[in-house]
Design goal:
Layout: E1 9-26, E2 29-45, H1 48-52, H2 62-76, H3 81-95, E3 99-113, E4 121-136, E5 140-154, E6 179-189, H4 191-196, H5 201-218, H6 224-238, E7 242-251, E8 254-256, E9 271-273, E10 279-286
Helix pairs in contact: 2-3, 5-6
Length: about 300
Protein backbone atom coordinates (compact mmCIF):
# COMPACT_ATOMS: atom_id res chain seq x y z
CA UNK A 1 0.00 0.00 0.00
CA UNK A 2 1.10 3.56 -0.70
CA UNK A 3 -0.36 6.94 0.21
CA UNK A 4 0.13 10.53 -0.82
CA UNK A 5 2.49 12.48 1.42
CA UNK A 6 2.99 16.23 1.86
CA UNK A 7 2.66 18.10 -1.41
CA UNK A 8 2.37 21.55 -2.94
CA UNK A 9 2.29 23.05 -6.40
CA UNK A 10 2.68 26.50 -7.88
CA UNK A 11 4.27 28.83 -10.40
CA UNK A 12 8.00 29.36 -10.15
CA UNK A 13 10.04 32.39 -11.16
CA UNK A 14 7.48 34.81 -12.52
CA UNK A 15 9.59 37.72 -13.74
CA UNK A 16 7.78 41.02 -13.33
CA UNK A 17 9.12 44.56 -13.73
CA UNK A 18 7.00 47.46 -12.50
CA UNK A 19 7.68 51.06 -13.54
CA UNK A 20 6.17 53.79 -11.38
CA UNK A 21 5.76 56.79 -13.65
CA UNK A 22 6.08 60.45 -12.71
CA UNK A 23 7.61 59.92 -9.27
CA UNK A 24 8.82 63.03 -7.45
CA UNK A 25 12.64 62.95 -7.42
CA UNK A 26 13.21 66.14 -5.44
CA UNK A 27 13.99 69.63 -6.60
CA UNK A 28 10.85 69.69 -8.68
CA UNK A 29 12.04 66.90 -10.97
CA UNK A 30 9.99 63.84 -11.78
CA UNK A 31 11.00 60.49 -13.22
CA UNK A 32 10.45 56.77 -13.17
CA UNK A 33 11.04 54.19 -10.43
CA UNK A 34 11.87 50.60 -11.42
CA UNK A 35 11.00 47.52 -9.33
CA UNK A 36 12.40 44.27 -10.76
CA UNK A 37 11.28 40.99 -9.17
CA UNK A 38 11.18 37.22 -9.50
CA UNK A 39 8.08 35.82 -7.77
CA UNK A 40 7.29 32.19 -6.96
CA UNK A 41 4.04 30.88 -5.47
CA UNK A 42 3.26 27.48 -3.99
CA UNK A 43 -0.13 26.27 -2.76
CA UNK A 44 -1.37 23.32 -0.75
CA UNK A 45 -4.64 22.13 0.77
CA UNK A 46 -7.45 19.88 -0.40
CA UNK A 47 -5.85 18.97 -3.73
CA UNK A 48 -5.20 15.25 -3.24
CA UNK A 49 -7.69 14.39 -5.99
CA UNK A 50 -5.42 15.94 -8.58
CA UNK A 51 -2.56 13.63 -7.60
CA UNK A 52 -4.64 10.49 -7.04
CA UNK A 53 -7.22 10.57 -9.81
CA UNK A 54 -6.40 13.59 -12.00
CA UNK A 55 -9.39 15.54 -10.67
CA UNK A 56 -8.50 19.24 -11.11
CA UNK A 57 -11.64 20.68 -9.50
CA UNK A 58 -9.71 22.16 -6.55
CA UNK A 59 -6.59 23.18 -8.45
CA UNK A 60 -5.95 26.86 -9.10
CA UNK A 61 -3.97 26.71 -12.33
CA UNK A 62 -0.36 27.77 -12.11
CA UNK A 63 -1.00 30.06 -15.09
CA UNK A 64 -3.66 31.81 -12.99
CA UNK A 65 -1.10 32.23 -10.21
CA UNK A 66 1.26 33.86 -12.71
CA UNK A 67 -1.45 36.26 -13.89
CA UNK A 68 -2.29 37.11 -10.28
CA UNK A 69 1.31 38.23 -9.72
CA UNK A 70 1.06 40.57 -12.70
CA UNK A 71 -2.31 41.95 -11.58
CA UNK A 72 -1.20 42.56 -8.00
CA UNK A 73 1.95 44.27 -9.22
CA UNK A 74 -0.29 46.72 -11.03
CA UNK A 75 -2.80 47.11 -8.17
CA UNK A 76 -0.20 47.57 -5.43
CA UNK A 77 2.37 49.53 -7.42
CA UNK A 78 5.74 50.21 -5.83
CA UNK A 79 5.57 48.41 -2.49
CA UNK A 80 8.13 46.47 -0.47
CA UNK A 81 8.50 42.79 -1.47
CA UNK A 82 7.15 41.68 1.91
CA UNK A 83 3.91 43.56 1.24
CA UNK A 84 3.51 42.05 -2.22
CA UNK A 85 4.16 38.53 -0.88
CA UNK A 86 1.71 38.97 2.00
CA UNK A 87 -1.05 40.27 -0.26
CA UNK A 88 -0.59 37.46 -2.76
CA UNK A 89 -0.51 34.73 -0.12
CA UNK A 90 -3.60 36.10 1.62
CA UNK A 91 -5.41 36.31 -1.71
CA UNK A 92 -4.73 32.70 -2.65
CA UNK A 93 -5.89 31.35 0.70
CA UNK A 94 -8.79 33.79 1.04
CA UNK A 95 -10.32 33.30 -2.41
CA UNK A 96 -9.81 29.56 -2.97
CA UNK A 97 -11.66 27.45 -0.42
CA UNK A 98 -9.63 24.25 -1.04
CA UNK A 99 -6.34 26.13 -0.58
CA UNK A 100 -5.34 26.34 3.10
CA UNK A 101 -1.70 27.33 2.77
CA UNK A 102 0.23 29.60 0.43
CA UNK A 103 3.97 30.17 0.23
CA UNK A 104 5.16 33.17 -1.77
CA UNK A 105 8.83 33.96 -2.34
CA UNK A 106 10.19 37.13 -3.90
CA UNK A 107 13.65 37.98 -5.17
CA UNK A 108 14.20 41.68 -5.83
CA UNK A 109 16.98 43.01 -8.05
CA UNK A 110 18.26 46.53 -7.59
CA UNK A 111 18.41 49.31 -10.18
CA UNK A 112 20.12 52.65 -9.59
CA UNK A 113 19.38 55.87 -11.42
CA UNK A 114 22.17 57.02 -13.74
CA UNK A 115 23.26 60.41 -12.42
CA UNK A 116 20.24 62.71 -12.54
CA UNK A 117 18.59 61.08 -15.54
CA UNK A 118 14.88 60.55 -14.74
CA UNK A 119 14.43 57.48 -16.94
CA UNK A 120 17.85 55.79 -17.11
CA UNK A 121 19.18 53.12 -14.74
CA UNK A 122 22.01 50.67 -14.23
CA UNK A 123 21.68 47.32 -12.52
CA UNK A 124 22.86 47.37 -8.89
CA UNK A 125 24.83 44.18 -8.48
CA UNK A 126 25.79 44.11 -4.81
CA UNK A 127 23.12 41.61 -3.70
CA UNK A 128 19.65 40.21 -4.28
CA UNK A 129 16.93 41.01 -1.72
CA UNK A 130 14.80 38.02 -0.71
CA UNK A 131 11.46 37.48 1.01
CA UNK A 132 9.34 34.43 1.82
CA UNK A 133 5.82 34.69 3.25
CA UNK A 134 3.74 31.72 4.37
CA UNK A 135 0.02 32.25 4.95
CA UNK A 136 -1.56 29.27 6.69
CA UNK A 137 -5.30 29.18 7.34
CA UNK A 138 -4.86 27.81 10.87
CA UNK A 139 -1.29 28.70 11.86
CA UNK A 140 -1.22 32.31 10.70
CA UNK A 141 1.38 34.29 8.77
CA UNK A 142 5.16 33.96 8.86
CA UNK A 143 7.69 36.30 7.22
CA UNK A 144 11.35 35.60 6.48
CA UNK A 145 13.37 38.32 4.77
CA UNK A 146 16.99 38.42 3.71
CA UNK A 147 19.54 38.72 0.95
CA UNK A 148 21.87 36.58 -1.13
CA UNK A 149 24.90 36.98 -3.39
CA UNK A 150 26.46 39.67 -1.20
CA UNK A 151 30.17 39.19 -1.90
CA UNK A 152 32.52 40.61 0.74
CA UNK A 153 36.28 40.47 1.27
CA UNK A 154 38.82 41.42 3.93
CA UNK A 155 42.41 41.58 2.70
CA UNK A 156 43.77 40.95 6.22
CA UNK A 157 42.70 40.68 9.89
CA UNK A 158 41.85 37.00 9.49
CA UNK A 159 43.61 33.93 10.90
CA UNK A 160 42.99 30.20 10.88
CA UNK A 161 45.05 27.87 13.03
CA UNK A 162 44.84 25.45 15.94
CA UNK A 163 42.73 22.92 14.04
CA UNK A 164 43.26 19.13 14.31
CA UNK A 165 45.82 17.52 12.03
CA UNK A 166 45.83 13.94 10.80
CA UNK A 167 47.44 11.96 8.00
CA UNK A 168 45.26 13.69 5.40
CA UNK A 169 45.83 17.28 6.54
CA UNK A 170 47.88 19.44 4.19
CA UNK A 171 46.45 22.89 4.96
CA UNK A 172 49.04 25.20 6.49
CA UNK A 173 48.11 27.25 9.52
CA UNK A 174 48.03 30.99 8.99
CA UNK A 175 47.94 34.15 11.09
CA UNK A 176 47.25 36.44 8.13
CA UNK A 177 44.95 35.45 5.31
CA UNK A 178 42.46 36.86 2.84
CA UNK A 179 38.84 36.27 3.96
CA UNK A 180 36.11 36.36 1.34
CA UNK A 181 32.60 34.96 1.11
CA UNK A 182 29.29 35.28 -0.71
CA UNK A 183 26.69 35.78 1.99
CA UNK A 184 23.18 34.37 2.01
CA UNK A 185 21.30 35.66 5.03
CA UNK A 186 17.69 35.17 6.14
CA UNK A 187 16.01 36.67 9.19
CA UNK A 188 12.76 35.55 10.77
CA UNK A 189 10.31 38.07 12.18
CA UNK A 190 8.55 37.56 15.47
CA UNK A 191 4.96 36.39 15.02
CA UNK A 192 3.57 39.27 17.08
CA UNK A 193 5.39 41.83 14.94
CA UNK A 194 4.04 40.28 11.76
CA UNK A 195 0.54 40.24 13.21
CA UNK A 196 0.76 43.91 14.21
CA UNK A 197 1.68 44.69 10.58
CA UNK A 198 3.57 47.89 11.34
CA UNK A 199 7.06 46.80 10.30
CA UNK A 200 9.14 49.18 8.19
CA UNK A 201 10.44 46.52 5.81
CA UNK A 202 12.74 48.82 3.84
CA UNK A 203 14.36 50.28 6.95
CA UNK A 204 14.84 46.85 8.51
CA UNK A 205 16.50 45.56 5.35
CA UNK A 206 18.85 48.54 5.26
CA UNK A 207 19.70 48.09 8.94
CA UNK A 208 20.32 44.36 8.62
CA UNK A 209 22.54 44.80 5.57
CA UNK A 210 24.47 47.61 7.29
CA UNK A 211 24.95 45.46 10.41
CA UNK A 212 26.19 42.58 8.27
CA UNK A 213 28.73 44.71 6.43
CA UNK A 214 29.92 46.53 9.55
CA UNK A 215 30.41 43.27 11.43
CA UNK A 216 32.27 41.57 8.61
CA UNK A 217 34.57 44.56 8.24
CA UNK A 218 35.02 45.16 11.97
CA UNK A 219 35.52 41.62 13.29
CA UNK A 220 39.07 40.34 13.65
CA UNK A 221 38.36 36.81 12.53
CA UNK A 222 39.89 33.59 13.81
CA UNK A 223 37.37 31.58 11.78
CA UNK A 224 34.52 32.28 9.39
CA UNK A 225 32.25 30.60 11.95
CA UNK A 226 33.15 33.29 14.48
CA UNK A 227 32.34 36.00 11.94
CA UNK A 228 29.01 34.34 11.13
CA UNK A 229 27.93 34.36 14.77
CA UNK A 230 28.95 37.99 15.20
CA UNK A 231 26.91 39.01 12.14
CA UNK A 232 23.77 37.20 13.28
CA UNK A 233 24.11 38.60 16.79
CA UNK A 234 24.31 42.22 15.65
CA UNK A 235 21.32 41.87 13.31
CA UNK A 236 19.18 40.55 16.19
CA UNK A 237 20.45 43.23 18.58
CA UNK A 238 19.82 45.99 16.02
CA UNK A 239 16.27 45.00 15.04
CA UNK A 240 14.02 43.91 17.94
CA UNK A 241 11.34 42.48 15.62
CA UNK A 242 13.81 39.85 14.36
CA UNK A 243 14.28 36.72 16.48
CA UNK A 244 16.33 34.39 14.27
CA UNK A 245 19.03 34.75 11.64
CA UNK A 246 20.27 31.99 9.36
CA UNK A 247 23.49 32.46 7.41
CA UNK A 248 25.23 30.51 4.68
CA UNK A 249 28.78 31.70 3.97
CA UNK A 250 30.90 29.75 1.48
CA UNK A 251 34.58 30.44 2.02
CA UNK A 252 35.92 31.91 -1.21
CA UNK A 253 39.50 30.80 -0.85
CA UNK A 254 42.38 33.00 -2.00
CA UNK A 255 45.73 31.22 -2.15
CA UNK A 256 49.12 32.91 -2.42
CA UNK A 257 50.76 32.25 -5.77
CA UNK A 258 54.27 30.81 -5.64
CA UNK A 259 56.39 33.34 -7.52
CA UNK A 260 59.75 31.79 -6.56
CA UNK A 261 60.17 30.12 -9.99
CA UNK A 262 60.21 33.61 -11.48
CA UNK A 263 62.65 35.01 -8.98
CA UNK A 264 59.96 37.19 -7.41
CA UNK A 265 58.90 37.56 -3.79
CA UNK A 266 55.19 37.41 -2.96
CA UNK A 267 54.61 39.54 0.10
CA UNK A 268 50.87 38.79 0.40
CA UNK A 269 50.21 40.60 -2.86
CA UNK A 270 49.34 38.07 -5.59
CA UNK A 271 46.60 35.47 -5.00
CA UNK A 272 44.83 32.74 -6.91
CA UNK A 273 41.05 32.92 -6.37
CA UNK A 274 39.68 29.36 -6.27
CA UNK A 275 35.96 28.87 -6.91
CA UNK A 276 35.80 25.17 -5.91
CA UNK A 277 35.96 23.16 -3.83
CA UNK A 278 35.10 25.54 -1.02
CA UNK A 279 34.34 25.43 2.67
CA UNK A 280 30.65 26.00 3.33
CA UNK A 281 29.97 27.59 6.70
CA UNK A 282 26.33 27.69 7.85
CA UNK A 283 24.71 28.57 11.14
CA UNK A 284 21.71 29.95 12.98
CA UNK A 285 21.69 32.69 15.61
CA UNK A 286 18.65 32.89 17.90
CA UNK A 287 17.36 35.48 20.30
CA UNK A 288 16.96 34.07 23.83
CA UNK A 289 13.17 34.38 23.49
CA UNK A 290 12.94 33.33 19.83
CA UNK A 291 10.23 30.74 20.48
CA UNK A 292 9.39 27.93 18.05
CA UNK A 293 10.12 28.49 14.38
CA UNK A 294 6.64 27.27 13.45
CA UNK A 295 6.00 27.45 9.72
CA UNK A 296 8.61 30.10 8.96
CA UNK A 297 11.13 28.01 7.04
CA UNK A 298 8.91 25.36 5.47
Amino acid sequence: MVQLGPNRYGKAEVRVVHVARGVALGGGAVGDLVTDRNVSSSLSGDVAGCYLTGDNANVLATDTQKNTVYAFSKKLGHVEPERLARELAAHFVGTQAPITRARVSVEQYGWTRIEDRPNSFHRTGDCVRTTTVIHDETQGVSVVSGLRDLVVLNTTNSEFHGFPRDEFTTLAETTDRMLATSVEASWRYRAEAVQADDIDWADDFAQAKAALLATFAGTYSYSLQQTLFAIGSLIIESIPDICEVRLSMPNRHHFLVDLDPFGLANDNEVYYAADRPYGLIEGTVLADDAGPEGLAWT
